[in-house]
Amino acid sequence: MDENPSDLLKQAIDAALSSNWEEAIKLNQQILEVDPKNTDALNRLGRACFEVGEFTKSKKNFQYALELDPYNQIAYKFLKRIDTFCKKGHKMPLPHNYSPVNSELFIEEPGATKIVGLLKVAEPQKLSLLSAGVLVNLIVKNRYIAITDQNGDYLGVLPDDLSHHLIRLIRGGNKYQAIIKNIKTNSLSILIKEVYRCPRFKNQPSFLDGLNVNLAYSSNLIVHAEDEETAFNEGDEEEVI
């Protein structure tokens, strides 16, 4: 293999993020030719095989990944999904962490929806296992809102000003849903939609154009994603929206 391993890794992650599963299979196989015990590559290859309906190959890769790392939660969760699909006779897989989504949730409405880029996002390997259009959880902490997938795994946090704004509305009675809108190597954006407005906020839109959600220069945002994920996992008072 002539290509630089780091270049192959980036290409493999990009292929998964763009749902180019055949290319993802080829690239991760190339990585494994050099590093057969690379559990991240095994996870990605297993997921790519799963997406094209090659359940036997997918299961084999995830089983080997779990053999190498018994605490590999990605492999463990996918193996459970594969067994479920095979038992039910599914021919094609649903997206990872799939939950049925009402098509109306995709419709943007002034004042009621907002597309926002998450901060302190999870590592690219985790992002590469996500799919656009699936539901995510809004977890209200004391001072911020974290975003998790349907398995409760950390994905990122909302910008501080938007978190503070929504926490006030949520605790006042408003309800929201969110879906993954766009995934890139080091970024993740979601669409948040107001699905219920409390009467006390009847004249107050949830989202205003003037609400600044770009806090790139705020000093308290210069935190590695792992630091935020560690804080998230260590526990805090929370509400799942």
Description:
There is one protein chain. The chain is α+β, with helices and mostly antiparallel strands. It folds into 2 domains: 5-88, Alpha Horseshoe (Serine Threonine Protein Phosphatase 5, Tetratricopeptide repeat); 103-240, 2-Layer Sandwich (Alpha-Beta Plaits). The chain has helices at 5-17, 21-34, 39-51, 55-68, 73-88, 124-127, 160-171, 225-234; strands spanning 113-117, 135-140, 145-148, 154-157, 175-184, 187-196, 239-240. Strands 1, 2, 3, 4, 5, 6 and 7 form a 7-stranded antiparallel beta sheet that branches. A hairpin with a 2-residue loop joins strand 5 (175-184) and strand 6. Helix 1 runs antiparallel to helix 2 (21-34) and helix 3 (39-51) runs antiparallel to helix 4 (55-68). The longest helix has 16 residues, at 73-88. The N and C termini lie far apart (47 Å). The relative contact order is 0.12. TPR repeats lie at residues 39-72. Keywords: Repeat, TPR repeat.
What keywords describe this structure?
241 residues; alpha+beta; Alpha-Beta Plaits; 8 helices; 40% helix; elongated; TPR repeat; repeat
Topology:
Layout: H1 5-17, H2 21-34, H3 39-51, H4 55-68, H5 73-88, E1 113-117, H6 124-127, E2 135-140, E3 145-148, E4 154-157, H7 160-171, E5 175-184, E6 187-196, H8 225-234, E7 239-240
Helix pairs in contact: 1-2, 2-3, 3-4, 3-5, 4-5
Keywords: Repeat, TPR repeat
TPR repeats: 39-72
H/E series, N to C? HHHHHEHEEEHEEHE
Structural class: alpha+beta
Largest sheet: 7 strands, antiparallel
Q: Which word captures the global form?
A: elongated
Q: What is the CATH topology assignment of the largest domain?
A: Alpha-Beta Plaits
Write the CATH architecture name of the largest domain: 2-Layer Sandwich
**Terminal Cα span:** 47 Å
Which spans of ≥5 residues are poorly predicted at pLDDT below 50? Answer: 92-100, 210-227
